[in-house]
């Protein structure tokens, strides 16, 4: 899921039409993709404006999600939604168990590494990458960081990631500076 500055989260994108009766193909950004249908309060973003919609039905066909927008009952109407981002208010996200975080919560946090007795600032989390095996923090240089390098650090709590402190805006890692 991508965070938007206006309190909305992008949870998918309409990529095309499916059939003749107003169904659309949706690329879901939720994990797992099926969670897309569990939300409500969907809004389609088109030209920096939001339109409230209701997906009244949906299912997986092959590798993709298809959904029906209530009131859109033919392909011509559905085609008008191609390329729209599907958003929900951030407040619609369910709370997570202790120690779990949404990607949006990790973005912008400072990443500190223990170097002997000293802690050094590696940078800030720019975004995350899903690799299949584990997520990866993309850490970019910031004011006060040790150098100007971009680093890819596996998000492995208890291994490369020691502690996440949202209140302080800090992630502590155990990472090799020279790598």
UniProtKB/TrEMBL annotation:
Residues 10-91 form the RimM N-terminal domain. Residues 103-175 form the Ribosome maturation factor RimM PRC barrel domain. Keywords: Chaperone, Cytoplasm, Ribosome biogenesis, rRNA processing. It comes from the Bacteria. SUPFAM superfamilies: PRC-barrel domain, Translation proteins. It is found in: Cytoplasm. InterPro entries: PRC_barrel-like_sf, PRC_RimM, RimM, RimM_N, RimM_N_sf, Transl_B-barrel_sf. An accessory protein needed during the final step in the assembly of 30S ribosomal subunit, possibly for assembly of the head region. Essential for efficient processing of 16S rRNA. May be needed both before and after RbfA during the maturation of 16S rRNA. It has affinity for free ribosomal 30S subunits but not for 70S ribosomes. The PRC barrel domain binds ribosomal protein uS19. Belongs to the RimM family. This is Ribosome maturation factor RimM.
